[in-house]
Structure formats: C-alpha cells, structure tokens
Amino acid sequence: MSSAVRFGVNYTPSEGWFHHWLDFDLDSVRADLDSIAALGLDHVRVFPLWPYFQPNRTLIRPRAVEQLVALVDAAAERGLDVNVDGLQGHLSSFDFLPAWTRTWHRRNLFTDPDVLDGQAAYLRTLAAALADRPNFLGITLGNEVNQFAAGPHPDPDRATEEQIDAWLTRMLAACAQGAPGKLHLHAEYDATWYQDDQPFTPAQAARHGAVTAVHSWVFNGTAQRHGRASVPSEHHAEYLVELSKAWANDPHRPVWLQEVGAPAPLVPPEHAAAFTEATVTHTLDCPDLWGITWWCSHDVSRGLADFPELEYGLGLLTNDRRPKDAALVLARAAREHAATPAARTTALVVPADPSVRSRCAPGGPVFDAFFRLVADGARPTTVLDTRADDQDHLAARGITEVVTPDQVLPVPPGTHGGTRS
Questions:
Q1: Which end of the chain is more exposed for a tag (fewer CB within 10 A), N or C?
Q2: Letter string b/e over residues 235-255, b meaning 16 or more CB atoms within 10 A of that residue's CB
C-alpha cells in the first residue's frame, strides 16, 4: 500500500444521478470522468445500485456487471483508480433495497440466511468481475449500511453486535474470494462512533477490513452548535480520523476519509471553498491517512425531484461539469501535498464501552475536550481507557501524554479538577 495520501471523489453521474445504470451511457460517463481527471484526482468511488444489479436473489444481471466493468475501464484510461460500493443501500436520503428483502418478502438484511447467501454471491461476483483490473482498488461493502440497523431509520433491520460482527466477517470474505489481495473494507455513517445503541461498533470499524473508513458531515449537530467556521466544524473530519484510532489494534492502521462535504445552508455555497480548504488542511495533518474522497463529483440535476435541498449542490463540479472553487481547492491540495505529518503525542482518553459512545458525539465531554485541546494549539489523538496505561501501545503510537476530558474541560464551580498525567 502506497504511503502517499490519495485524493479522490465520490462519483455522482451528471446525467440521471445513480439511476444512470438504467440508461447507461458510456460517452456521458467518459465526459464525467474527464472532468474529474482534469482536477488531478487519482480515484473515484462508484455506486452500482443493488436492486438494479440483483433484482432477484438468484439473478445478478450480467449486462449490469459488464457496464460496471466498462466504467472501471474508462476510469483506467483517465488514470483513475476505482473503489466499488456493493450494497446500495442508502444514498442521499433514498433507500435502494431489492424487492426480495422488503414487504411481502421482508427478511433481515443482516441475519436471514437466504439474504446473506444472496449478498455474498453478489459481492463475490462484482469483485471477481474486476479482480484483474489494475485500477480496481477493492470493494466497500455498502454505503452507510449501519443506518438500516437501528433508529432513526423508520423500519430498521435489528441485529446484535455479535450478528453484525458475523455479517462483516462473511461479506468481507466474499469480497476476498472474488478478488484476493484487494483493498476491501466497510463504511458507516457516524452513528457508529456516536450512537449508544448502534450494533455497528467503533471496534468493528477499526478492526474489520483493510482500512478504517470515516464519513464526516457537520450537519450532525456540529455546525448547528458551533457554526460553519468554528474549530469543531473545520476540524470535524480530523476528529473522526483520530477518534477511530483509539479502537485500532494496528497502531498504524490506515484511515480513509471516504466521505466529507460542504452541506448548505450550514455551509453556504460562497463559503464552501474555505470550508473545504480548512477540512482538507487539518485532515492532512493526521498520520496514517490513506486518502480523502470528497462528496461528491457533480451536482444533482434540478430536474430530479424530492432530494433534500442540500443534496443538489454538494458537487465539486456543476451539473454541466464546470469546476467550482471548492474543486480548485481540492485540486491544489492533490497537486501540492507532500509533507508527512509527525506523530500526535497527546492522547485524549475515550471510553471503550460502546454503550456510552455518545460521550464522543457533538456536545459530549470527549468531543468538547478534543476541540478544547485543538483550540489550545495541541494536535490530539485518542486512546481507549483500557489502553491508557499500556506503555507498549502508547509507545507504538508515539504518545507521550495522556489526558482525560475532565482534565481538559473547565471545572464546574465547587469541584476539584485534576491535572494532566
């Protein structure tokens, strides 16, 4: 695995959005990829829609798979590597699940034996079709599939932590069977790190798959609480990257900032470039960063209905493929970035118990303490409370100072505060 940081974009087709698979036009795809490659980016993440590719549990459409291969080959012609998301799943507020898992055929996505067989066959088929392509990075199991496993989803597929662990193990194995040696991983939205009852846990995120993926969106309460140009908002992606490291067993496990964007109106369009620059700059100061993949490539057409308003303008490029100022910021970072960040020597203690992970969420003591340290000029990382006295673990990560949230945050009147250890 290269030590150079990768810069890429989540590919949202300019014509038809992800419904383009229904009317696949390779010339349009090539034009989109040309506009991405012109920015100097090196990879894209692409999204076959699961019900379009596997409309029946035992039917994986050969023509759809051929179109995916054609897209990957077109990317190769433009110097772009490709990561493929499998189980779509959930995208931009819409759920895309095959009919054989819903309503009259309602079966749990994470525990039903027949569904698991179908999912594994599908992932293995996609991986095998691309295994010999040099620019194929690997499979991400799906986009934020944890949103199906708990509230606030209106119809969740409930599962235990142990069942999710078994699901991850089996699905990643299916990817590896199809394409051995590739970068296979899974990716969830930030409820994994912040929501106490999520069965997808931080430990799973940091230990299953080839890299840890984090998705950073400041509409999770961060920008609402603190404002678009605040320390927490501009450093939120950096925080998730460093938070994830507390649970990793490998002290230098790579972390991929796989999604991050500038959501309006919390980040107004005229401020998107400044937000992008701040986010990218601070994230690049994280050691062991695999890459940054911006959400997203092209705006959603206003001809498509019912998207949340913020989704229409998230692209680095307009719907007619013109780069915005934020695109130029990312292009410049891709062109100029060279420095390797030093180790982060100060570690903030976080609870290993996933039932209290909300302490790490916006408004929680870990969250607030991290950004207090940042505001004070520190470059913090995190460490589990169960490892805070493990000198071998601390040394392997370059940590020389361990602090708890109560040693960082202001002490309430009438209480006694501690000092840094």
A1: N
A2: bbbbbbbbbbbbbbeeeebbb
Distances (CA, A) of 414 to 404, 408, 410, 411, 417: 19, 17, 12, 8, 10
Query: What is the average pLDDT score of the chain?
Result: 96
Distance CA 421, CA 409 (A): 15
d(CA 143, CA 145): 5
Structure tokens at 72: 């990957």
Query: How many H-runs (helices) and E-runs (strands) does the chain carry?
Result: 15, 12
Is residue 21 within 8 A of residue 52, CB to CB? The reply is: yes
Per-residue DSSP letters for 275-327? HHHHHHHHHTTSTTEEEEEES-SBPPPTTS-S--GGGGG--SB-TTS-B-HHH
How confident is the model at residue 409, as a pLDDT?
A: 84
Confidence (pLDDT) at 416: 39
CA distance 411 to 54: 56
Considering only CA atoms, give the Rg of the chain. 21
Distance CA(135)–CA(78), nearest Å, equals: 10
Least confident span in 178-192, 275-289, 405-419? 405-419
Sheet holding 81-87, edge to edge: 136-142, 81-87, 43-46, 6-10, 289-294, 255-260, 212-216
For tokens 């189980």, name the residue.
Answer: 87
In sequence order, what E strands does 35-159 have? Answer: 43-46, 81-87, 90-91, 94-95, 136-142
Mean pLDDT for the stretch of residues 321-342? 96
What are φ and ψ of residue 83, in 5° steps? -105, 135
Average pLDDT estimate for 62-84: 98
- Beta strands 43-46 and 81-87 are parallel
Beta bridge partners of 91: 94
Q: Identify the three-state secondary structure at position 206.
A: helix
What is the reported pTM? 0.96
40 φ/ψ sector (left φ>0, alpha ψ -120 to 50, else beta): left
Instruction: Give the 3-state secondary structure of residue 386.
Output: coil
CA 105 to chain centre: 30
